[in-house]
Design goal:
The complex is a heterotetramer, with two copies of chain A and two copies of chain B. By secondary structure, chain A is an alpha+beta fold. Helix content of chain A is 15%, strand content 30%. Chain B is 35% helix and 25% strand. The chains are: A alpha+beta, B alpha+beta. The interface between B and C is large, with 39 and 39 residues.
């Protein structure tokens, strides 16, 4: 997030506020039932098996709440590297939760998340062009959008040089803390 | 009535407020930090907004994000619960200024009662019995000495901006005063950013008695009986009950009248608690006003039948109190045990995964908790995970019920204060109602013998 | 007071009695069939005895084994709960003869009120308003015809030994009477081993109103207000409330007085319920006395604060009632929902493993249940797995609380009647208190449209 | 059980009854957790075994609530996949629960259980010899003991011809329904 500035004009009158119904999707209902291997778990197991094969791993351990991971590489001749990462506590991050894109799509990409709660705007004013479009090349520090909070416009800048792969939030809609806004591919495009 | 309320809290009190809203037909917005994404209060609300990372200053105490969450969801009012932003006058003021109703006292109320030395000064001037103490903040060592001599030793030095036992020092002899005064000032400055301290008479083993009050926006006030919160460890309450075994009808009327006067004197609004110290000779002294709903409010609900959270909401929405003082009937006796995720011997927090959570049930038993089997107690916030409340026709019945309920309560995976509560309720002095703020320390001292 | 009580029951009522005993400091003996070895009532008791295989006639209704269990454990008294041996005059008599106190009415009480035609005859003779009906059992078709003409159609034919809706036949026209009378006699003989039947006036959509009474061993009687149990399906109650929306203070006093007279007339002892039918013109008629504690007793506890199970035990131990009629205060309103392990559409039992059981909590919510996560509902006994009870200052608050609590209640793995309760509490007529024994059938009939 | 008959004399006076403390051991505490394997769990285990085979894995671990997974690939060719299956504890029967004897001891033997609740007596009167001793040869229908219930003596007979391997209850102590009393080896002794 960069400096906040006073908005050029009110985006919406207060009377509108009460009419915004349920601005955030109900993310919890699907995970309320923790019993039984769900469809998601099935899919995840399949994905993990693929990961195992693709990366030539010998072992892979994974936990969810408390996020634990354990990897062991193929015990080929001379090779015996073991990586063990244990991130204490911590439930899922909203960022992980909210990303619609599959795991393959995000690998190696940078997700720009909202640092505040507010309303997401892709352009500085309703009749102006959006700051960026999908496919655009952006520079580190370039403004990608604004998030309005408490009548203040907060410009959100790119953290890296790269290409905008995907815009993950809808303009004029509320965003919460940590919600993914943009997916940037930092690989330098020729 | 409000159509939508944002609850600026987490855990059992957030769920408590959501339950009241549901019963009133009001939509609810939960806010949460990113470690609380799957917390029960989030799942129970109609809407939810992630407002920051785990650290409370960046989330639950993050005023811009809390207000933004109210704005984007169209919430008309905010219930702050207790802790976090509940007694933050600035937050209440900003709410007022942007047209979001703060469900609680006015920002001015919070500011006035938050300055304890000043509050005592105002109220003492109106004939309210206040603890013998310095007339206001002490500006110098000589002022402190003079005040202490007048009051008589032992005295206690307290920080004006303090609370919950922090920044307090007992001084038994005149020789110790100056050093203690300097140390208290320094500590107050470090801890609260305000070096103001004041002096009070120190009572050995008094009772902590507090009166629940409700004041509507027209200034009508009712008191709802007292709570005895003498079972404390380092000023942290562990067991509360109502009525107090030390308060008879005459004293109840008198304390209630004084509490009402206090509230009227500061033009207080909404729910609040007036705290008193009760000595062995049945003298009571005003200590402070808690400008919030309190953890222990359920015991008052059990004996009055009045839902205090709903009353808070109704008052904030501008409704006058629907009952008068003479309509308030206190029936039976109620206890509350605070079940904390703590090692019961050393009181160190014990976060972790609750593998099994089986609350007790049956007649006269109430559980307020946002836990269930497979819930995680995160290490970032306070360790209160459940309040176990019992009600009975007599103190004896309410105690027997508490013992029975404690016995039924299963919380596996983490350590809790349940074993300590079992000890308290099996103690002969406690059973006789012979308690004071020194009770628990004495009980715990037996361990080290 | 007794030192040890055997509880001759299972499920929530066994746990209910064990809880009361624990609060009174009485040791408990659970009995169980071999499929209930790990049931919660077994684990909650101090001692337990396996008394037979799953079939209740060989275990929970097996008088020699139940009494042997009391004998070998040294239990001084037996609480029968409801169902099983609760209204078995022979069992009560054997208990009396071997010096084990039966916690309930005398065997003679059970026998007298169990013969419904006779009970009506006795009470009608004392000026108690009874349903217009045949003076006693009908011995012939001509007697039946004569009685029906005198009463006026429609009439209902009931089995003297019946109960719970079994063996009843409504007759709308004189031409139908003879055939119905013959069929009812035959059915009564097959079902109850006793072909005695009697006739009563049949009311369309009356209310089922019952009065809770307590009578001590000295014959002092108090009534504890009425319960409205009009929400029934095939004479099986599903929702109960107190006070009844149809009963005002005048009628309450009057029904209470009559109930007390009934109890005194038959020299009844311990807890009992006097059932009345209330027609649209506020006329009430005595139907029968239920000589046991009832499933729905908690709603009365919620508004009176009186623990009925403890009172049963105290009375059986010879203590006089500790309060008089004028001490009884009814406060607020209470509902009970019976949560059955049944498909909510077809009411077929649905036993199985309860994978998750998360009861609701908070103010004014009570859950009586012997279930927890990973409990198994066995197919051998009745399908009641939990009673959800709410209390509020008003009927509206108690209803809102019930809706909120039903919403919170999680029972996974089996089907329950929770969705049906949600429908009932969302029904506009129900909300207005316009209910009768025909309410539920009408609500369910909407489904088939 | 055979015919009941009136006892020859009172074994104990009623005053004694109240003094019998806790006659049955607390059997339930160890088996409080009733996590039986359901049909669904059976199916899941089958699915996981298939997954193991199909993907040539050596190990696969799966947990339910915090969703934990552990995978290990086949170490080399020719090695058989190792599947670990853990059957959760089922509902113990009172008979199983009460038998002190190890599982091996009961194989092929007949357990005589109490058909009623009462007090177990090994002899017809205190000064008489026991009906049987361990090692005795008994005939089908032979009286092994009496169980007193409600002042009635109930004779318990052997269901088979055989040898008394073990006497499982203590004389004068209460027994519950289904409690094992004798272990009989029905193998004809030469």
């Amino acid at each position: 997030m960069s400096k906040a500035r006073v908005p050029p004009r009110p985006r919406k009158d207060p009377g509108q506020l009460a009419a915004v119904p349920n601005p955030f999707p109900d993310l919890s209902s699907s995970s309320q039932e923790l019993t039984g291997m769900s469809v998601d778990q099935h899919r995840e197991i399949q994905e993990l098996i693929e990961l195992l094969k693709r990366n030539n791993l010998a072992e892979l351990e994974f936990e969810r709440d408390g996020f634990r991971i354990y990897l062991k590489r193929e015990a080929g001749p001379g090779q015996a590297a073991a990586a063990r990462e244990s991130v204490p506590a911590g439930l899922e991050r909203p960022a992980e939760r909210l990303a619609d894109s599959g795991p393959g799509e995000t690998i190696g990409k940078v997700t720009i998340t909202s640092p505040i709660v507010g309303t997401f705007y892709r352009s500085p004013s309703p009749d102006a062009d959006p700051y960026v479009e999908e496919g655009d090349i952006v520079k580190k520090g370039q403004v990608l959008c604004v998030v309005e909070a408490m009548k203040l416009m907060n410009e959100i800048e790119s953290e890296v040089d790269g290409r905008v792969v995907k815009i993950l939030a809808e303009s004029t809609k509320p965003v919460e803390f940590g919600q993914p806004l943009f997916l940037i591919d930092p690989a330098p495009t020729p | 009535m409000f159509k939508k309320i944002l609850i600026a809290n987490r855990g059992e009190i957030a769920l408590r407020v959501i339950r009241a809203c549901k019963e009133l037909g009001i939509r609810t917005v939960a806010i949460h930090s990113d470690v609380d994404t799957n917390a029960m209060h989030v799942r129970a609300a109609d809407e939810h907004v992630c407002i920051g990372p785990a650290e409370d200053v960046l989330s639950y105490r993050n005023i811009p994000n809390v207000l933004s969450a109210a704005e984007v969801t169209g919430a008309e009012a905010i219930h702050p619960g207790y802790g976090f932003l509940a007694e933050n006058a600035h937050f209440a003021e900003v709410c007022e200024s942007i047209g979001i109703k703060f469900i609680g006292p006015t920002s001015e109320n919070i500011a006035v009662v938050g300055d304890k030395a000043k509050a005592r000064e105002i109220l003492g001037g109106r004939g309210i019995p206040v603890l013998p103490g310095s007339p206001g903040e002490l500006r110098s060592e000589s002022e402190a000495l003079e005040a202490a001599r007048k009051i008589g030793f032992p005295v206690i030095i307290k920080a004006s901006a303090g609370g919950g036992g922090r920044g307090m020092r007992v001084v038994n002899k005149e020789e110790e005063l100056v050093r203690a005064f300097q140390a208290a000032q320094a500590e107050a400055k470090t801890t609260f950013g305000n070096e103001g301290v004041y002096l009070e008479r120190y009572f050995l083993e008094p009772r902590h008695i507090e009166v629940q009050v409700l004041a509507d926006e027209r200034g009508r006030v009712v008191s709802l009986g007292e709570r005895d919160c003498s079972i404390q460890r380092r000023y942290q309450k562990l067991v509360e009950e109502t009525p107090s075994p030390a308060v008879d009808d005459r004293l109840r009327r008198e304390i209630g009248r004084v509490a009402t006067e206090v509230v009227k004197a500061v033009h207080y609004r909404n729910a609040g608690t007036v705290e008193f110290l009760l000595d062995k000779d049945q003298n009571f002294y005003f200590m402070e006003v808690n400008a919030r709903i309190q953890v222990e409010h359920p015991v008052t609900e059990m004996v009055t039948g009045i839902d205090l959270i709903k009353e808070q909401i109704r008052i904030a929405a501008g409704f006058p109190l629907a009952f008068r003082q003479q309509d308030v009937r206190l029936t039976g006796h109620s206890f509350e045990c605070r079940i904390n995720a703590e090692c019961p011997e050393k009181f160190t927090p014990c976060p972790g995964l609750v593998t099994r959570f089986r609350p007790p049930g049956g007649f006269g038993v109430r559980v307020d908790s946002a836990m269930e089997s497979q819930s995680t107690v995160v290490p970032y916030y306070d360790s209160l995970i459940a309040k176990l409340i019992t009600h009975g026709q007599t103190r004896e019945e309410a105690m027997a019920r508490m013992r029975r309920a404690l016995d039924e309560f299963v919380i596996d995976g983490i350590k809790t204060t349940i074993p300590l509560h079992v000890r308290i309720f099996n103690d002969a002095e406690f059973q006789k109602g012979r308690i004071s703020t020194g009770f628990l320390d004495r009980l715990l001292a037996h361990d080290s013998v």
